[in-house]
């Protein structure tokens, strides 16, 4: 099976820099089901083409399938998998071009961020839905689509294969993500085991464009192999991602509104004071491994990595865009290897049980709970305090009583995405109830300059268990 990517941007050979595959070499990448080859049929300043050729070992693939499914029929050996661009090509593409898919380039960051003229050709794609479905899936993403049914030799004149050519001005990372998600969708078959981890892959790869796609339901259903529970989880997370993206467009009031009180954060921005307080609480608890839930752009992660006491640091966010920002904020592509080994970034939600959240000394919810609908707080509590159950949990949230010191009107919130903001009594009531239900001791502290009547701008709860 073959995929070619062509650009006429000048110099066109910059395509090799983005793909991190040199045009002068043929490179082989072993896969569990065969070998992927990358080479350049043409490489000039005005036109450059990179080709991904996947040689599928049908015998190896069939033996693996037989062990998992018990199906040892001849159809596992005689099929279109070596010839047509299916989910196997998507897997190879995801691994071989992983750096390009991330949209990060240490050498040419401006090149990775820019759209460029691209032409993508796939000689044969199995498509349950024909050429019309190819147009339905790719045209909303800005592609001009040429798709025609083609008979695949040996599979009859009525084969469901389509020749596809896509052209458009698209960022390379986005183009690769479109292919990674949509090739298995066209085929409506995945040639490997599908589990809950596929939800994370789908949201991470398609989150920036899939939430608003007119065929989102079909894409989600097919990508997740018609597993209804996985589909529901993906749709919910995509909806959360859409809400988070809308919220990011609004600037936080907290950082913009000037203070009317003389003692309001003159020397340091509040977020720095907050981060220092959280780090101090984690250090006092003796935590070595920390889970930052709702890590955003990675400011707390930066502070934790700068402190040698924290040997394992994981950032979690529902937004793939936030994780991309965190990678840039942390300069992940330039980070020393020793520090890089201490860090993990994962996409996930605090309201869904996730086995990856277990095994940490401490978890942090820094300015997170106020972004949740009140009806989802019990789910968050079960996930964090009941399932993940770290030894220490640190929660910070705005103190609504202090808002007047920022010159804000009554009931005005500091951020457009806040669902609520608690006064000190309400926060203490909630925190005490959670501590009692899940067996934690509670300590509440103020963060920031204190006002005799309003208290501090941020309130922090530190939950410890025996």
From TrEMBL:
Sorted alphabetically, which CDD domains does this protein's record hold? Answer: AdoMet_MTases
Q: In this protein, which residues make up the domain named Methyltransferase type?
A: 291-379
> GO terms for biological process?
regulatory ncRNA-mediated gene silencing; RNA methylation
GO MF, one term, reads: small RNA 2'-O-methyltransferase activity
Q: Which residues form the Hen1 N-terminal domain?
A: 1-239
Q: Would I find Transcription regulation among this entry's keywords?
A: no
Query: Record keywords: Metal-binding included?
Result: yes
- Which organism does this record belong to? Glycomyces albidus
Keywords of the record: Magnesium, Metal-binding, Methyltransferase, RNA-binding, RNA-mediated gene silencing, S-adenosyl-L-methionine, Transferase
The record's comment on protein family reads: Belongs to the methyltransferase superfamily. HEN1 family.
- Pfam families hit by this protein: Hen1_L (PF12623), Methyltransf_12 (PF08242)
Q: Entry's InterPro entries?
A: 3'-RNA_MeTfrase_Hen1_bac, Hen1, Hen1_N, Hen1_N_sf, Methyltransf_12, SAM-dependent_MTases_sf
Catalysed reactions listed for this entry:
small RNA 3'-end nucleotide + S-adenosyl-L-methionine = small RNA 3'-end 2'-O-methylnucleotide + S-adenosyl-L-homocysteine + H(+)
Q: What is this protein called?
A: Small RNA 2'-O-methyltransferase
E.C. designation(s)? 2.1.1.386
The organism's taxonomic lineage, starting at the top: Bacteria, Bacillati, Actinomycetota, Actinomycetes, Glycomycetales
């Amino acid at each position: 099976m073959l995929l070619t990517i062509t650009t006429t941007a000048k110099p066109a050979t910059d395509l090799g820099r983005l793909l991190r595959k040199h045009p002068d070499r043929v490179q082989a990448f072993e896969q569990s089901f065969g070998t992927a080859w990358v080479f350049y049929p043409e490489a000039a300043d005005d036109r450059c083409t990179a080709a991904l050729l996947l040689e599928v070992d049908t015998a190896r693939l069939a033996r693996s399938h037989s062990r998992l499914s018990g199906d040892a029929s001849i159809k596992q050996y005689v099929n279109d998998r070596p010839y047509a661009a299916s989910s196997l090509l998507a897997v190879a593409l995801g691994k071989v071009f992983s750096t390009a898919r991330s949209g990060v380039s240490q050498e040419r960051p401006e090149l990775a961020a820019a759209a460029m003229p691209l032409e993508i050709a796939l000689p044969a794609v199995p498509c349950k839905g024909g050429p019309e479905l190819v147009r339905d899936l790719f045209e909303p993403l800005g592609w001009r689509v040429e798709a025609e049914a083609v008979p695949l030799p040996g599979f009859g004149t009525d084969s469901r294969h389509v020749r596809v050519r896509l052209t458009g001005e698209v960022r390379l990372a986005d183009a690769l993500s479109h292919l990674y998600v949509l090739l298995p969708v066209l085929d409506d078959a995945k040639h490997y085991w599908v589990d809950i981890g596929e939800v994370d892959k789908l949201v991470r790869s398609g989150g920036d464009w899939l939430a608003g796609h007119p065929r989102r339901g079909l894409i989600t259903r097919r990508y997740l192999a018609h597993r209804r529970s996985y589909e529901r989880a993906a749709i919910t997370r995509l909806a959360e991602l859409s809400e988070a993206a809308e919220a990011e467009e609004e600037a936080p009031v907290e950082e913009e509104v000037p203070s009317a009180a003389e003692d309001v954060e003159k020397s340091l921005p509040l977020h720095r004071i907050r981060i220092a307080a959280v780090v101090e609480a984690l250090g006092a608890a003796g935590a070595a491994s920390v889970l930052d839930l709702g890590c955003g752009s990675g400011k707390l992660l930066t502070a934790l990595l700068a402190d040698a006491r924290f040997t394992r640091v994981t950032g979690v966010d529902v937004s793939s865009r936030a994780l991309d920002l965190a990678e840039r904020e942390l300069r992940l592509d330039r980070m020393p290897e020793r520090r890089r080994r201490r860090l993990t970034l994962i996409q996930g939600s605090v309201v869904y049980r996730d086995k990856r959240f277990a095994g940490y000394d401490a978890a942090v919810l820094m300015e997170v709970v106020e972004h949740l609908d009140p009806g989802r707080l019990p789910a968050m509590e079960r996930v964090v305090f009941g399932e993940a159950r770290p030894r220490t949990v640190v929660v910070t949230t705005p103190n609504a009583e202090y808002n007047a010191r920022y010159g804000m009107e009554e009931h005005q919130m500091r951020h457009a995405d806040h669902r609520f903001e608690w006064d000190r009594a309400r926060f203490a009531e909630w925190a005490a109830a959670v501590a009692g239900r899940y067996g934690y001791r509670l300590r509440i502290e103020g963060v920031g300059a204190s006002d005799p009547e309003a208290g501090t701008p941020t309130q922090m709860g530190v939950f410890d268990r025996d």
